[in-house]
Amino acid sequence: MTGTETVLGAPVERREGREKVTGTARYAAEYDAPGRAQAWPVPAAVARGRVTGVDTAPALALPGVLTVLTHENAPRLGDPDDPTLALLQSPHVPHRGWFVGLVVAETLEAARAGAAAVRVTYEAENHDVTLTASHPEAYVPESANGGFPAVTGHGDPDGALASSAARVDVEYRIPPLHNHPMEPHSSTARWEGDRLTVQSSSQGTSAVRTELARLFEMSEDRITVLAEHVGGGFGSKGTPRPDVVLAAMAARVTGRPVTVALPRRYLPAVVGHRAPTLHRLRLGADAGGRLTSLVHEVTTHTSRVKEFVEQAAVPARVMYATPALRTLHRVVRLDVPTPSWMRAPGECPGMYALESAMDELAAETGMDPVELRIRNEPDTEPDSGKPFSSRHLVECLREGARRFGWEDRDPRPRSRGAGPLLIGSGVAAATYPVLVSPCAASARALPDGGFLVRVNATDIGTGARTVCAQIAADALGAPLDRIRIEVADSDIGFAPMAGGSSGTASWGWAVHEVCVRLTGRLSEHSGPLPDGGIAADADTSGTADAESPFARHAFGAHFAEVTVDTVTGEVRVTRLLGVFAAGRVLNARTARSQFIGGMTMGLGMALTEDSTMDPAFGDFAESDLASYHVPAHADVASVEAHWIDEDDAHLNPMGSKGIGEIGIVGSAAAVGNAVHHATGVRFRELPLTPDRVLTGLLEHEHPAGMLGT
């Protein structure tokens, strides 16, 4: 595309697409250099305790092994902002899988063999890794993740519930979930005198540089962090992880470039996970289906290393009008790995529980599930009372129902079948907040008629390079092919990470601002441009992060059709449909990809993704992709994503909302609700695996006490 008339919103191809499909795109572990060494970590083999001895001699005797770092000889680090990065600083073992050593060798194979040869002895302590809603050490934290209050409320929820014409009191359980990006967490580090350069698979180079400066007690201007290509993250690369710290540490000790690529089976223990959440929902409604009371209580776990509280009750503060509302978070400190961000943290598990409960309320009141949601549409945000900057959830539900053919649905459970297959359909709503952070950017008009725009965005597969170029072309009034973009370099300037569906809004705001400024400077210039061109800079601090009088959220509606095999218990999703209201869509091609990716990830949450914490060993039983199952193309026949363009003047100069996470929110609930419609059985624990479904079907056919007859 060379014109500018439709540059924003156009389905522009990814700028780095050819590099990726031809294999020329280089990722963090692929930056070779003379003398580069490889390193392999040694994970702790106890669930809690301390290291009493480390025998490194067998490892050092192996060919190619250069050194073994442990708490006894590793460089001393400064106090980290994130305690999970206090690596090899102490004999203390807070959970199984915590790194207690690092073997550095000439080759990856030698490093792996060396790590296997290290002998570590421990003094084990009693551990507790089991989350229960009645755990005696559960407490209410000061706040949940993101700074949200742990408790909010208004009205008299208990009294209103007791006098309601219809009531639902249900519990849901979501297991631990893991991010598992295609590219495991990897970093390559090299020191040149007192300067450190790192290629890191990270969602944000600014955060990595800041933490490395703190740990190695040096100024940030002596550190460069690059993340040219990142093979996915889903939140797990949103903060610095052990790979980058260990790589920098090993490079300093050996005086050579060092690559640390974490083995996939180690990821669940050291890069975060979606914490398990136990939900209790109590809904009350009048005879017309209008909510009279809503109570959402969540219990989750965190580690003893660092408090992280999944804010899963927060969506209940946004979604539906009710005169009485209470939300509560409780957390238990256990001897488990530290949980962290995973795509749509809080909203994803919270909306699964809320939208499942709303489906149960629809059944209780005899109302259509779509109409029940529409009937409870609020005028303002229920928790804050703020007006919405834009809210088109009703339009999403109506348009989704039209596209899906919802009016032809027989509302009775088990009303459709084909041989041993039961067929059902379900719906769920979705929401995700609009987040934006300050960012710096620069732009330069070049004598050859082109433009160079620099912003420290990180492209984790979302098409950030492409959409930032589109924003620049639109603001400059220039053809898209005249725009050159440089990203993912901490030396460019501060930028927030690619996370919270805030990347494009944050980077794009700075890009728009700097290009508008450059346009102004060019309008004042006459004659040829100087050899160095004309430049402008921008920093959106104070504007992008200004307090808004509006409640700003994206919304959506998910519809799912499933078949359930009554012989095997297998659930197949034959169709997923999503309709979203996410501001102005800036690139139709990459937006559709993001929506579909999120919806598919929600499908995995519903049907296949499961992790169990072994109470005896204190370890996740599913630690690789052979045991932790993610969806494949064959797992869904059709995925459709559509959107309603919103004209919202209260967001950013582009009028965009984030789209990376709204696609997953509600997807699992739509599948679960469809399974209930197909079978008449309500499953309240994910995932809906064949064994769990078949057991539910058998219990439905043969009530308690009759299975043995």
Strand order of the largest sheet: 3-5-1-12-9-10-11
Count of runs of 4 or more consecutive helical residues: 15
Largest sheet, if any? 7 strands, mixed
Terminal CA distance = 71 Å
Which whole number gives the mean pLDDT?
96
Please provide the count of β strands: 26
Report a brief summary of the structure.
By secondary structure, the protein is of the alpha+beta class. It contains 15 helices and 26 strands.
Describe the structure.
It is a single chain. The chain is α+β, with helices and mostly antiparallel strands. Helices cover 24% and strands 24% of the residues. The protein is built from 15 helices and 26 strands. It has a 7-stranded mixed sheet, sandwiched between helices. Helix 8 (347-365) packs parallel to helix 14 (667-679) and helix 11 runs parallel beside helix 12. The radius of gyration is 26 Å and the shape is globular.
Which key features would you list for this structure?
single chain, 709 residues, alpha+beta, 7-stranded mixed beta sheet, 15 helices, 24% helix, globular
Compile the SSE list and pairings:
Blueprint: H1 17-22, E1 37-43, E2 49-55, H2 57-60, E3 65-69, E4 92-93, E5 99-105, H3 108-117, E6 119-124, E7 151-154, H4 157-162, E8 166-174, E9 186-192, E10 195-200, H5 205-215, E11 223-226, H6 242-254, E12 258-261, H7 267-270, E13 277-285, E14 291-303, E15 325-334, H8 347-365, H9 369-375, H10 393-404, E16 417-418, E17 421-433, E18 440-445, E19 451-455, H11 464-476, E20 483-486, H12 503-523, E21 534-539, E22 553-565, E23 571-581, H13 588-607, E24 613-614, E25 619-620, E26 639-643, H14 667-679, H15 690-701
Parallel strand pairs: 1-12, 10-11, 14-15, 19-20, 23-26
Antiparallel strand pairs: 1-5, 2-4, 2-6, 3-5, 7-15, 8-13, 9-10, 9-12, 13-14, 16-17, 17-22, 18-19, 18-21, 22-23, 24-25
Helix pairs in contact: 8-14, 11-12, 13-14
